[in-house]
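SEQUENCE-TO-STRUCTURE ENTRY
===========================

Backbone structure tokens: a row of integers, each naming the local backbone shape at its residue.

Task: work out the structure tokens from the sequence, keeping to the layout shown below.
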Amino acid sequence: MPDHVIVTDEDATRVITLRRPEKKNALTQTMYAQMSNAIDTAQNNPDIRCLIITGGSGVFTAGNDLDDFMKAGANKSGKDRPMNAVKFLHSLVHNTKPIIAAVDGIAIGIGTTMVFHCDYVLASTTATFSTPFIHLGLVPEGASSLLVPMAMGHQRAFSMLVMGRPVSAADAKIAGFVNEVVAPGHTETEARKVAREICDLPAEAVALSRRLLKRAPEDLVRRIEQESHLFSERMSSKEAMAAFGAFFARKRA
């Protein structure tokens, strides 16, 4: 099986690279587990001062691989969501190291959600952020219903999360959840520069200051659990079943 998540440690930075270009880096449960492990194992490693998540050049991630997601959801075990996806969200919430997103291209669904858990975001001019949960009859996930309004205000959050409107890199910078907009193909290079800048700062001061800026993990976990319960209920709704049926019909056509 090909490795769709590449993890490399360079100097004091761990780079987590999504590498499934033939599927636009669509995320499988295996990929979620690999990303979780990369984040979790960095926590008690003093040599890792910073994390970068990148999709490489031209794409960040198309979100969930819906075939894989539906198969995982079909194996009911009393849990609200496929567990590897939830574990990844918890890894993001409990992460204590500065984390940088390098977004070059599309960031769909959880691809956008994870950006709001990051501390610094670079996007190329071709990047777009979208959360089309509503079009599938679903609800936001990953504490995005809490983090997105905090970052960009209720009205912009409503447009993105409820109406499902995509946001360009330029508009994301104006909204405040993207720090820098760079040329296509340069997000990872610029992310490494930011990581070096962070790693040159006093480690304990960075960790304490970051903790002061972030919402308490228990608040985020509580919202994730609330969203997951509603998400699970919605998966069996008439709206969601019709939307997924239409999606797979288009895919087969």
About this structure: The domain at 5-186 is CATH 3.90.226.10 (2-enoyl-CoA Hydratase; Chain A, domain 1). The mean pLDDT is 93. The chain has one domain: 5-186. Residues 80 and 228 are 6 Å apart (CA to CA).
